[in-house]
Amino acid sequence: MPNMTYYVAMPFSRTDDGDLAPGEAIECPSHTAATRRAELLARDPQNAGAVAFSRTGDPMMGEFSDAVVLKSFGDVPDDFAES
């Protein structure tokens, strides 16, 4: 099976001690859809921020490359911040 690319939007919220915690990841059909969804998630007052990212790999083998950040909004962990 050829490699597939998955596009994801994921919100982050603040814990009681101020750390950022990931919310439920939402699979999206495209780069644009993931970016738009992340922007909307970041606007939700319950979220500190959100990120759109992609991962490419072989789902049959369960092997995927590292996440590629497409766009981040608001407060997200350093490893999800855009470079």
Chain-wise SSE layout:
Blueprint (H helix, E strand, L loop, with lengths): L3 E11 L5 E3 L3 E3 L2 H13 L5 E10 L4 E2 L3 E7 L9
Antiparallel strand pairs: 1-2, 1-3, 1-4, 4-5, 4-6
Q: What does this protein look like?
A:
- It is a single chain.
- By secondary structure, the protein is of the alpha+beta class.
- It has one domain.
- It has 1 helix and 6 strands, in the order βββαβββ.
- Strand 1 and strand 2 (20-22) form a beta hairpin.
- It is elongated, with a radius of gyration of 13 Å.
Give a quick precis of the structure.
This protein has one helix and six strands. It has 83 residues and is of the alpha+beta class.
Keywords:
single chain, 83 residues, alpha+beta, six-stranded antiparallel beta sheet, 1 helix, 6 strands, 16% helix
Low-confidence stretches: none
Secondary-structure element order, N to C: EEEHEEE
Count of DSSP H/I helices: 1
User: What would the average pLDDT be, to the nearest integer?
Assistant: 93
Percent of residues in helices: 10-25%
